[in-house]
TrEMBL record:
Pfam families: ClpS (PF02617). Keywords: Hydrolase, Protease. One of its GO terms (molecular function) is peptidase activity. This is ATP-dependent Clp protease adaptor ClpS. GO terms for biological process: proteolysis. The keyword Protease applies. Residues 17-83 form the Adaptor protein ClpS core domain.
Length: 91
C-alpha cells in the first residue's frame, strides 16, 4: 500500500469521526441520592445500577462523566439535569 493511499484512508476515517462531548455531573450538598438517581435515569437513560454508581462516584470524587456523545444529543439532557437542580456542564 502506498503512503499516499494510507494517508487518504486516515483522512477519510478522521473526517467520519464526530467530536464527542461529555456531560459532567458535580457534587452538591443539596440533592438526595434518590433525586440524583431518578434524574439520571430520566435524563440520561441510565439503568438504575448505572445511576446509582454515578451518584456514588459524584459523592466521593466530586464529579463524574454521566453521558458521552454529540453535543446536539447532550444539550437537552444537560438542560434536564440543570432544571432538576443538579450541577452539570457539557465539556
Amino acid at each position: 500500500m502506498s503512503t499516499k493511499h494510507k494517508n487518504l484512508e486516515d483522512l477519510q476515517v478522521r473526517s467520519k469521526e464526530k467530536s464527542l462531548n461529555e456531560i459532567v455531573l458535580y457534587n452538591d450538598d443539596v440533592n438526595t441520592f434518590d433525586h440524583v438517581i431518578d434524574t439520571l435515569i430520566a435524563a440520561c437513560d441510565h439503568t438504575p445500577e448505572q445511576a446509582e454508581q454515578c451518584s456514588l462516584i459524584v459523592h466521593y470524587k466530586g464529579q463524574c462523566t454521566v453521558k458521552t456523545g454529540e453535543y446536539e444529543d447532550l444539550e437537552p439532557r444537560c438542560t434536564l439535569l440543570l432544571d432538576a437542580g443538579l450541577s452539570a456542564e457539557i465539556i
